[in-house]
Amino acid sequence: MSDELPAPPDIARDVFAGEAWDRANAFAELLAGPGVVRGLLGPREVPRIWDRHLLNCAVVAEVVPPAARLVDIGSGAGLPGLVLAIVRPDLTVTLLEPLLRRTVFLEECVEALKLDNVEVLRGRAEELAGKRVFDVASARAVAPLDRLLKWAMPLLREGGELIAMKGERAAGELAEAESQLQASGARTAELVTVGRGKVEPPATLVRVVAGRAPEQARRRRRR
Questions:
Q1: What is the largest CA-CA distance in the chain?
Q2: Fewest Cβ atoms nearer than 10 Å: which of 1, 49, 181, 207?
Q3: In the chain, which residues have pLDDT < 50?
Q4: Cis peptide leading into 43, omega within 30 of 0?
Q5: pLDDT for the residue 26
Q6: SS in 3 state form for the chain?
Q7: pTM of the model as a whole
């Protein structure tokens, strides 16, 4: 397998329309170059940057509400958060990442791509809880769903959504997280498929709508 960045597939022009096209190409180059050199992406991933990474993340935008405030937990190389910011300029995106070398890369990408709808924060979700509130939390390959719920739900407004990219493990993780879903006061939790006709296989997400955690509900009743 060649480790060179391939030409973007034809479908990419439809997914990354308008100004997003040049930014997507520039981000692909950043991932294949500095991203690999600094260990944020493995060399074997370079031939799959378009289909497995950029397009697979971009189709998540199908389920993100308009003008949402989105936090990307454990953003890493900016997947999916930076891609969502490119394809959806209406979003306000916070890339949350605890490791310095990754936040430095993300900041360089934001500057190079001239994205004015993105901020980079170095830190953990637990540290941000109670300080900021978001409409959407996204995550990809960060942690099992039960642990991700503990991090994400305190960051969401009531009615906000956790959108977790989970692939073939989605159904299993959703079943295993049942007790944590109840403990976190989730209203609903479901599997969602996006990207039909754009990526193969289509991307599988877990979407959880935040309610009020049981202890919060009890405190409100006491008042």
A1: 64
A2: 1
A3: 1-2, 217-223
A4: no
A5: 98
A6: CCCCCCCCCCHHHHHCCCCHHHHHHHHHHHHHHHHHHCCCCCHHHHHHHHHHHHHHHHHHHHHCCCCCEEEEECCCCCCCHHHHHHHCCCCEEEEEECCHHHHHHHHHHHHHHCCCCEEEEECCHHHHCCCCCEEEEEEECCCCHHHHHHHHHHHEEEEEEEEEECHHHHHHHHHHCHHHHHHCCCCEEEEEEECCCCCCCCEEEEEEECCCCHHHHHHHHHC
A7: 0.93
